[in-house]
Design a protein that fits this description.
By secondary structure, the protein is of the alpha/beta class. It folds into two domains: about 240 residues, Type I PLP-dependent aspartate aminotransferase-like (Major domain) (Aspartate Aminotransferase, domain 2), CATH 3.40.640; about 130 residues, Alpha-Beta Complex (Aspartate Aminotransferase, domain 1). It contains 14 helices and 13 strands. An eight-stranded mixed sheet has the order 1-9-8-5-4-2-3-12, sandwiched between helices. A three-stranded antiparallel sheet has the order 7-6-10, with no helix packed on it. A two-stranded antiparallel ribbon has the order 11-13. α1 packs antiparallel against α9, α2 crosses α9 and α3 packs parallel to α4.
């Protein structure tokens, strides 16, 4: 058996919508499916504005421009995240300030944020790892008291909630990813900027349209459009939006399927967790997750290397995840770690991810679970 780590989701309706978009006179962006998708998100998320972008990276870059990030500004976030979380703000001249993570969720430790705030701090970026929410009440309270902005990196968080609120809709802005590895994709890449504060809406449309007021022109608010601010080409093509639309029609089906796979893993491996071989993901009571990632946290880096090698021999493509940004060359140049790195490096060295995607077969999950049981049985016998 050869089990891929990921397969992009496909429901069957994508092709007809892509073909319809391709045959239209509006394929480059802001066409029929772009508008359908954005309206769908605004209705489902109850946000002020949803703007499709070419990637989650670009959605975060738009947020940095909207917040007028300048040289010397500081942005607080976890080091255990993808490079785009930091790079979007570094591009505008910000200094990144990393704080430690919580070992239970791998999310930013909300109790470490306040100590990292200086007079230069402008933004907090909580990253909802594995689609499991950060402690947003505490984070928003800190932001309110210190007059800071909050940009949620909810790249992995579509269909996840915190106290009933969709991830990405709690801070001033949020960002989703539709990369091929995510639960929903727009045919490879794609993202969404979620705006929860009306004061940013018009400027966001200008930034996305290369710094022009073209969106206002098509809305009939100006009689011609021109260059009015900085911006870039951040608008997703309508063809990609059409592919995504085929999946948004099936969000509940995809979500239920992934959660069923997540639960099969959890039920099949909890016996080994109870024996102390590893830790399984933790889901706080006030959160609802989306089955984006299923991971194990094994004893140490050496054990992780052993089990990954063993699973590879069995034809199972399991992988580790982020190398903490503060340990990277660019991280040392553009950022600093505030406080002690108690958990970030230690916990990241222990984590490995199992195959997880829409339509993953029960027989494949059973095979992975058995292989992990066999690995630990062999280790026990070899002692």
């Amino acid at each position: 058996m050869n089990i891929s780590f990921n397969k992009p989701p496909y429901t069957g309706n994508e092709e007809q919508y892509v073909l319809k978009s391709m045959r239209s006179d509006k394929i480059s962006g802001n066409g029929e499916y772009t508008q359908k998708v954005e309206k769908w998100f605004e209705k489902e998320l109850l946000c002020k504005k949803a703007l499709l972008s070419t990637s989650c990276t670009h959605a975060l870059e738009m947020a940095a421009i909207l917040l007028d990030i300048k040289d010397g500004d500081e942005v607080i976030m976890p080091s255990y995240t993808f490079v785009s979380s930091a790079n979007a703000f570094v591009l505008r001249g910000a200094k990144i300030v990393f704080v430690d993570i919580r070992p239970d969720t791998m999310n930013i430790d909300e109790t470490k944020i306040e100590a990292a705030i200086t007079h230069k701090t402008k933004v907090i970026v909580p990253v909802h790892y594995a689609g499991i929410a950060c402690e947003m009440d505490t984070i928003m309270n800190i932001a309110d008291r210190h007059k800071l902005f909050v940009v949620e990196d909810a790249a992995q968080g579509m269909m996840s909630t915190y106290k009933g609120k969709a991830l990405g809709t709690i801070g001033h802005m949020g960002a989703y990813s539709f990369h091929e590895t995510k639960n929903y994709t727009s045919a490879g890449e794609g993202g969404l900027l979620i705006i929860n504060d009306d004061t940013f809406t018009e400027k966001a449309e200008i930034i996305r349209e290369k710094g022009t007021n073209r969106a206002l022109f098509f809305q009939g608010k100006v009689d011609k459009y021109s260059w009015v601010n900085i911006g870039s080409s951040y608008l997703l093509s309508d063809v990609s939006a059409a592919y995504l639309w085929g999946q948004l029609e099936n969000t509940d089906t995809i979500n239920s399927n992934r959660l069923a796979s997540w639960n099969l893993y959890h039920n099949g491996l909890k016996e080994l967790e109870e024996k102390g071989f590893f830790e399984l993901p933790k889901v706080p009571a006030k959160t609802v997750h989306n089955g984006h990632i299923f991971y194990l946290k094994v004893k140490d880096l050496g054990t992780r290397t052993e089990i990954l090698d063993y699973l590879k021999v069995q034809g199972i493509n399991a992988i580790f995840h982020y190398v903490p940004l503060h340990s990277s060359e660019a991280g040392r140049k553009f950022a600093r770690f505030n406080g002690d790195d108690i958990y970030t490096t230690k916990e990241s060295n222990r984590l490995l991810r199992l195959p997880m995607y829409y339509a993953l077969l029960k027989s494949e999950i059973d095979f992975v679970v058995k292989a992990i049981h066999d690995f630990y049985t062999y280790k026990e016998v070899s002692k």
